[in-house]
C-alpha cells in the first residue's frame, strides 16, 4: 500500500433521500442507514470496516440528522467514538462534499463510501487504497462477469463499454484538491435531475462523463477524462463480487444476510 498508515479520511454517506425510503418505511425507522440488516443497523458494518483498517485515521459520517444516530442505542457508539465525527449534509452528495472541502479541515486523501455498503471489508479497502493511491480521483466498479460468476441471480444496473459491463461499487477516492473541479461538475448534474442524476449517484462523475462522451473502454476512458481535467483518474476494478452488492432493496438485504450467514459458519 502506498498510503501511509492512518493517513486516510473516510467519509461515510448516511443521509436520506428527498422521498421516504421503502426499506426505512418497512422497518419503521427514520432513515435508511438505521434499517436492520443481519440484526443491527446497516451503517454499523461499513463503519466498523473503515475504522478497523490501518490506513484510515478518521471517519466522517455525513448525514442530515446526526441526532438520530446518537439517540439509537445500536448506533450511539459512533457518536461516542474518538475517531468519528458527524457532519450535517445538505441536499446532495457533491454539494455536501464541496462544503466540507471548502472548510479546509479534512486532510487528503479522502475515501468515500455509503452506509448501505454492508459487505464492505478489509480486502476491498486494501485493493482500493493500493490501486487508487497516487491518483487525484478514482472510482471502484465491478465488471458483470465478476458478479455473475459468484451470484448469477443478482440484478444490478450496468453500463456497457467495450471492456465490459460495469456496475458501481460505491467507493470513491479523492486523492488531492485537484479533484474539486470534477466534484463541482458532479454537483451541477446533481442539481439538474434531467441530466442523468441517477447515473451520477450510482457511478460517479467520471463514469457519467465516459458514457456521455461515448468512450470505448471504461478503463482508458476514465484516465482520458482525468487528463482533460489535468488530473490523474483511475478505475479500480474490484476483485470481489460483493463490492457492488449494497442494501438497496429487499432482495439485496436477503442476499446480504445470506452471505453474512455463510461467512459466519
UniProtKB/TrEMBL annotation:
The keyword Magnesium applies. The keyword Nuclease does not apply. Gene3D superfamilies: Spore Coat Polysaccharide Biosynthesis Protein SpsA, Chain A. One of its GO terms (molecular function) is nucleotidyltransferase activity. Keywords: Magnesium. InterPro entries: MobA-like_NTP_Trfase, Nucleotide-diphossugar_trans. Residues 32-146 form the MobA-like NTP transferase domain. Transmembrane segments: none annotated. It comes from the Bacteria. This is MobA-like NTP transferase domain-containing protein. It comes from Sphingobium indicum (strain DSM 16413 / CCM 7287 / MTCC 6362 / UT26 / NBRC 101211 / UT26S) (Sphingobium japonicum).
